[in-house]
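Duplicate of earlier report; Transporter input re-posted below.
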Amino acid sequence: MDKKKDQWSTKLGFILSSAGAAIGLGAIWKFPYMTGMNGGGAFFLLFIAFTILIGLPLLIAEFIIGRGTQKEAVSAYQSLSPKSPWSFIGHWGVVGAFILMSFYSVVGGWVLIYSALSIPGMIIQDNANYPELFATITGNPLITILGLALFVIINIIVVSFGIKDGIEKSSKLLMPLLFVFFIVIVIRSVTFEGAMEGIRFFLQPDFSKLTAENVLYALGQAFFSLAVGISVMVTYSSYLKKDVSLPAAAGSVGLMNIFVSLLAGLAIFPVVFAFGLEPAEGPGLLFIVLPEAFAQMPFGEVFLSLFLLLFLFAVLTSSFSMLEIITSAFTEKKERSRKKVSLIAGIVIFIAGIPAALSSNLLADFKIFGLTVFDASDFLVSNIMLPAGCLFIALFIGFKMDKTLIKQEFSYGHHLPGSTYQIWFQLMRWVVPVTIIIVFLSSLGVL
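Output:
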């Protein structure tokens, strides 16, 4: 496939699409419940620190590898280190994206179902029990599998159209609307009686609650939210023109990600505490809290429908990136049809996602190391594959990749001081890998 035939048409399109790939479920769905389960404000502060000091340098690194080679993930590493073990990093990313999308699409199906139910006004009801509603929807195997199937079909359709005509056009239109609606929800959430307790929980750090495991989860959340570690951003940046500053683009994506995470926390936790809900509810937290908040607003059902549709889009933009890395890996070297490859990949992902979809109903009692298939898949990707992938990328940039190419790609499109590159490179070579190793060992009880 000739990359020149399919590129981002604008810098804004690339940034919004990359932000869409990063934000999605990571910031909006997973961040609030992970924060609720791991100590509140202290977890949020660690998340910000890891995002800025570890996640952003890694995001720049993936951008450099992708644009520097103009190839998707697998081919990029093979071209930079032919006939060497380093080329496995691209394959690691494709496998990680596949596992991630198999359970991610289950949650996407939940969002799709909630969106469909909200349009005719079937979610917000008088005296509704929202935890029970969520349990009813996810407890029905036919509904969860139908949601999974529809979500995967949407992904296949968009990715089959390619970068400019599929992913970029949709991102430019809907990402800004998501920000606007989130701000509306936050304004309402913080004005509930008792909301201040939720704000304190979210923004006031209590480090006495932190454990080594919480720190690992914060690191994994930073990687999950920025979509680094599985080379998704390598593939996205391979479609990028040379006049775009990679550090500036990465900074924009990172700041948007932190901002949306902040909005998500301010939208969720004031409602949780105002209505006596449980902050450590888990994956269902968002689906329980949002209807509760919108029910207290004029025209709440209308606003809920609009927000869920926008949230569905944010979820889709993330999943597009996962299906894109898989699809491009099989269309890069051989003249295979993008439509055919995305269809086959989507079918395999759907089949692989069925056990995760059944984790809340028929397979609820089936455990892997004490976790359901859904939770085990999430743990494997977020706390093992993403950090390990980030470690591999940091070592590759720091000790293997051609330094001239690295500096050249880092420097295009801006006039930052030379010290900026040196600071970033030393972070990648020493701080990033050492931090990941220390957090890993601490979580295992070695340190």
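DSSP finds 17 helices and no strands in the chain.

Merging into the original ticket.
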